[in-house]
Amino acid sequence: MPELLNRFTSRIVLAELTIHLFLMVLLLLLVIPRIENNYRQQFINHAYIDAQRTAGLIAQEPERPYQLIDALNNGDLVHAELVHPAPDSRSDPAFGDNNDSVFYVATPLSLGATKYTLHIAYDERPTSQLIADTRNAGFIIAAIYLLSATLITSLLGPVLSRPLQQLSAAARKIAAGLSTERLEVRTPIIEINTLATDLEHMRRELVNQGEALSAREARIRAIMDNVVDALITLDEQGLIQSFNLAAERIFGYDAKEVVGQDIDMLFTSPFYSSYKARIQKNAASPDQPQSLEILGRRKDGSTFNLEASLSEMCQIEGCLSIVVCRDITDRKQSEMELKSLQEDLERRVIKRTRELATVNKELQHQALHDALTELPNRALLQDRLQQATRTAKRDGHALALMLMDLDRFKEINDTLGHHYGDLLLQQVAVRMRSALRDSDTVARLGGDEFAVLLPIIQHRDQAEHAAKKIIEAMSPPFSLEGQQFHVGISIGIALYPKDGEESVHLMRRADVAMYVAKRSQIGYTFYDPSQDLHSVSRLAMVGELRRALEAAQLKLHYQPTADLRKHQITGVEALVRWDHPQKGSIMPDEFIPLAEHTGLIKPLTVFVLNEALHQAHLWNNSGLYLRMAVNLSARSLHDPDLVTHVASSLDRWNIPAEQLQMEITESAIMEDPIRAMTTLTKLHRMGVKLSIDDFGTGYSSLMYLKQLPVEEIKIDKSFVKDMLINNEDKVIVRSTIDLAHNMGHQVIAEGVDNEAALELLREMGCDLAQGYYIGTPMTASALPGWLKHTSWKPNTTPITDFSRDSIAV
Ligand code: C2E
Ligand code: CA
Ligand code: CA
To answer: Is residue 716 in contact with ligand 1, taking CB distance under 6 Å?
Structure first.
């Protein structure tokens, strides 16, 4: 019932009825009675007025009142009568009462003097009828009104409520999810239409928003479902609100199984509370990583490693925690594998490093040591030398660097073969090493070159002492294949800081000194700047020597050679001198090596050849026939143009080839025996006589020399000079003479500077002799004068062939 009353139509109808009932009551209680009353009053008034008028009329015609009354009674008067005097009881002023249908009016009337009362009865029925009709009409009208109003209202109610119902029905449907339901009504009522339009607008907005929201939700859901990490949202109590697909996969639960459950069920240890505490603790430093590694528990009870992080998201409705979990089983596994791999790798690297270190050590040793002798090599020497110079500089002491070269090594190597050469080098190394202290470095620089570093010396005597010890160690013969060999050594010594402060300078200067030692056959020498080919003065000298060649500053001196049997001067040796404008006469030992080093030896040889043959030509013309000996350096021997020069010079001065003799040292030949052999053969074929100079200083066996097209052996002056005091030298000289003779060579001894020597040589059967005792080197112009005063006879027969007369067979 109340529901019915709450309905819109019911309420309108009810309101309608209430209003109209009220109006009807008003009509029936106020209007209709008033109309009735009005009608009644009108009737009464009309009755009274009519009664008055009638009374007046009667009064005017008193004679015939009754006719008049009769006349009146014919009208609406029901009855009229004159009553004398007092009013009749029938007089009834009230209308409608007594239900008599008559209204009596009593009007006093004086007819003449008689007082009457005129009673007129008016028929009140028409008026009553009118009143009744009016009342009825009123009722009818009210009823019709009421009915029609109710009808209209009840008709109008639904008209109003239907669209609303439609709207509400549509709204219900929308609410039920039929968001496509349109909020449309067909009604002429503008307000409802507007309302419907607005609601529809609202619906669309809501639909749009809803769609956007659901799209977003769908997206979020899709994202949540597609992330590989488990995403779990929690409420403030730590209860699971959502659980994405990854979470389902990782933990093995269905979302619906865990939603509403405590998050800690997913872990082996309390996660939520401890994490919360952690967040609070780290609140001061929010940058700290928030993830932790924890053991997760799957639905089947198995545990696994996972990395979990928790973040809070607070909004107006409250806070939400998002837990992100990642299964790190694989990662842990990989980490462990990686760790084991790493450990394995480390072990292998350590092992390999050790191996490499060993190999490296070996390589380092190899890189820094000579494979043959096991001595430090050049690189190590350089290194030690540098260190030693630094230490010497710091501590203020001196050091010595010695470079040395074996004197006959190349010949042994070439003659006996590399195998013996190597054996010799090994023996040399052992001897050197044992001759020196352990603190000294003995190095092999290559070939037959060795070096010794004395890192600390107090005085140069110490270096000298060491050099002597090395020479001494070398003096016993070396035994190779049962044969005994003597190997000399030349040592050059450079001192720090006197000769240089840099290792490179010391090396070079020791080398210079060694070269000097080797050339002068004196065993060892200290560096002397005046002998340094590389020194500034030496460089200047090269230029000067070149100019000297052009400016004819080079002069030849001639040293006679005597035939011991004929007691005759049969030849001269051309020895070059340099008449330096400032320095005076410079001896060949000073500039020949320089010329050899710079290539000037070639023009120098050409000059000497030409000059000597010119002189021979002059002497020949004067009837003095002397064999002209010219020295050939190794360089010249290898000059392909030499033979041509010789031929053209001979030709130029018309000298028979036999009158020319060329002196070549053993070592010059042994430098390159094959090429030497070629040149020597050519010269020999031309007729030029060949002599082995400085014989005995190099290593060349006579057997080897036998193959050479030489005619003469020139015993080195070092043997000749010492043969009187040194029996060994004497033996050498004697055996050389004998052997040379046996091989068909002529023998000449040089450096004969005393009579005894000359006598001994003569006794030994030496063919020729040369030396200060016979004659010093002299100018060409001095020779004829000298010849006049000497006991030696000059040769006055033209030389056509090498005289074999002197050879003792
Ligand atoms: P060498 O060919 O052995 O010449 C002999 C050297 O011994 C000469 O020295 C000579 O003066 C010297 N001498 C001669 N008799 C004696 C003596 O009784 N006692 C002593 N102690 N020495 C004596 P020099 O003239 O100073 O020549 C030195 C070297 O220079 C020569 O040695 C030779 O190898 C070289 N030489 C000289 N002139 C020339 C040349 O024109 N061309 C070439 N390539 N080398 C030359
Ligand atoms: Ca010579
Ligand atoms: Ca000589």
So the answer is: no
The Å distance, Cα 752 to ligand 1 centre, comes to 13
How far is 28 from 34, CA to CA, in rounded Å?
Answer: 9
Pocket test for ligand 1, best of 631, 638, 717 (most atoms within 8 A of CB): 631
pLDDT computed for residue 690 by the predictor:
95
pLDDT the model gives residue 273: 83
The CB of 774 under 6 Å from ligand 1? The reply is no
| Residue 194, token pair as written in the block | 């507007």
Residue 195 carries which side chain, given as an amino acid letter?
Answer: L
- Torsion-angle region of residue 636: left (phi > 0), alpha (psi -120 to 50) or beta? alpha
Among 240-249, 314-323, 622-631, which is the least confidently predicted range? 314-323
CA of 778 from ligand 2 middle (Å) equals 15
Q: Quick one: average pLDDT of 308-323?
A: 83
Distance CA 219, CA 519 (A): 101
Residue found by looking up tokens 């008049």 in the block: 68
Helix, strand or coil, per DSSP, at residue 464: helix
Dihedral (CA of 204, 210, 213, 214) sign:
negative
Give the separation between CA 673 and CA 710, rounded to whole angstroms. 13
Distance 353 CA to ligand 3 centre (A): 62
Distance 768 CA to ligand 1 centre (A): 16
Of 74-88, 186-200, 271-285, 689-703, the poorest mean pLDDT is in: 74-88
Omega within 30 of 0 (cis) for the link into 163: no
Average pLDDT, the chain: 85
The residue-averaged pLDDT of 477-490 equals 85
For a pocket test of ligand 1, which of 750, 754, 758, 773 has the largest count of ligand atoms closer than 8 A to its C-beta?
750
Ligand 1 pocket, 696 CB below 6 A?
no
Query: What does pTM read for this prediction?
Result: 0.46
How far out from the chain centre does Cα 233 lie? 44
Ligand nearest to the CA of residue 575, numbered in listed order: 1
Q: What per-residue confidence (pLDDT) applies to 808? A: 34
Among the ranges given (267-276, 664-673, 720-729), the one the predictor scored with the smallest mean pLDDT: 664-673
Distance of CA 358 to the CA centre of its chain: 31
- CB of 521 closer than 6 A to ligand 1? no
**Whole-angstrom distance, CA of residue 475 vs CA of residue 465:** 15
Confidence band, pLDDT 50/70/90 cuts, at residue 75: low
User: Which numbered ligand comes closest to the C-alpha of 758?
Assistant: 1
More confident residue, 441 or 536: 441
Does any ligand 1 atom lie closer than 6 A to the CB of residue 693?
A: yes
Can you tell me the distance from the alpha carbon of 627 to that of 620, in angstroms, rounded to the nearest whole number?
A: 10
Give the amino acid at 200: E
CA-based torsion, 450, 454, 458, 461: positive or negative: negative
What pLDDT is recorded for position 58?
Answer: 78
Residue located nearest, by CA, to atom 23 of ligand 1: 751
Encode pLDDT of 168-181 as tens digits.
888 888 778 777 77
Strand pairing report for 318-327 and 230-234: antiparallel
DSSP H helices, 622-692, are 634-637, 642-652, 666-671, 673-686
- pLDDT at position 804: 41
Q: 794 CB under 6 A from ligand 1?
A: no
Residue 83 pLDDT > 80, yes or no? Answer: no
End-to-end Cα distance, the chain: 176
CA of 575 to the centre of ligand 1 (A): 6
CB 641 less than 6 A from any atom of ligand 1:
no
In DSSP terms, 664 is beta-bridged to 632, 692
pLDDT per residue over 251-269, tens digit each?
999 999 999 999 999 999 8
pLDDT of res. 98: 62
Report which residue type is found at 550: E
AA identity, residue 242 = S
389 lines ligand 1 (CB under 6 A): no
Give the pLDDT confidence of 139-159 residue by residue, as tens digits: 787 788 778 877 887 777 777
